[in-house]
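Hi F.,

I've been meaning to write this up properly since the lab meeting, where we talked about keeping a consistent format for the predictions we share between groups. The idea is simple: the sequence comes first, exactly as it goes in, then the structure tokens exactly as they come out, then a line or two of notes. No screenshots and no reformatting. I'm using this chain as the first example so we have something concrete to point to.
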Amino acid sequence: MAIYTRTGDQGQTSVIGGRVGKDDVRVEAYGTIDELNCFVGQARSLMEEEQYADLREQLLEIQHELFDCGSDLAFVKLSEGKYKVKAEMAERLESWIDSLQAENPQLERFILPGGSQLSSVVHVCRTVCRRAERRAVTLGRSSDINPQAVIYLNRLSDYFFALARTANTRAGIADVEYVRSKKVFRN
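Output, unedited:
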């Protein structure tokens, strides 16, 4: 099987239901999700098997779901019956967030991304996820999309925030508070 097709040499690419420019907002949306998936894979590769077995499993599931999300955004025409991202996926992320938060120390102020190498990469996942969400919202302004994809991306960025903190907690590294921050989180 040839990896190259030469069909995109003129700046066009195939989506589900047609062809668009490679710089089309739809391609930007699912392309950013693909970029996110790469960083999730990097984060997963930094997790030691024993200490992070539960989180490695979660990230693997998330990688599959990111493919689902990208697939849903690739539809040119609304196709509800074929959508893969469902409300239950965001609800499950919420339960994972709650579990992660139970491990983390109380938070009062904004924190700086960083700490352990794993936490730093997960913070990159968080920010790329936010960009993917923004791209999906932009796409949704001009096209019908699966609204669950936007909800999923929103919840996923929250998951990455909690996960980055848990990575530091499990490594015994304290989060660094943003010193100019007022107390913004209520416990």
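Notes:
Helices lie at 25-45, 53-73, 87-103, 117-142, 147-171.
Residues 12-177 form a domain with the Hypothetical Protein Ta1238; Chain: A; fold (CATH 1.20.1200.10).

If this format works for you, I'll send the rest the same way.

G.
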